Amino acid sequence: TAPRPTNGPPALALTSPANGAVYVAPATINFTVDVIPDGHAISQVRFYHGTNWLGAVISAPYRFSWNGVGVGTYSLSAQLVDDSGSTFASAAVNVTVSPRKIGPGSSQPSTFDLLQQ
Asked: What are phi and psi of 115, to 5 degrees?
């Protein structure tokens, strides 16, 4: 087993969602973060849309679901907080949530179709 690094900042990567991903509103966007600590204990990993805090998890696996996301373009990131209070941010990824197509030619079932099933 290789020892954990004890110098330099930890490595933090937002592995999901993928940069450029497209969702349909109302969307559920699932975050997954890979972390390589620097010898400090991880207190929490926070999840953000721009500067807006969405939530946090305090233990691995570092996953979070953002539910009911409306139409728009979002810059998403994660931030690690270690036991010393230091913070380290991931690179941001951009995702788009598009409106649901409804009407003639739509592949979405109508409410009536759903009730008949």
From this structure: -70, -30
Q: Give dist(CA 53, CA 72) in Å, integer.
A: 17
Tokens 């270690």, residue?
82
**Burial 61-79, CB ≥16 within 10 A → b, else e:** ebebebeebeeeebebbbb
Residue-level pLDDT, tens digit, the chain, 117 residues: 444 455 677 889 999 999 999 999 999 999 999 998 888 899 999 999 999 999 999 999 999 999 999 999 999 999 999 998 999 999 999 999 999 887 665 555 544 444 444
Q: Tell me how far apart the alpha carbons of residues 87 and 74 are, in angstroms, rounded to a whole number.
A: 22
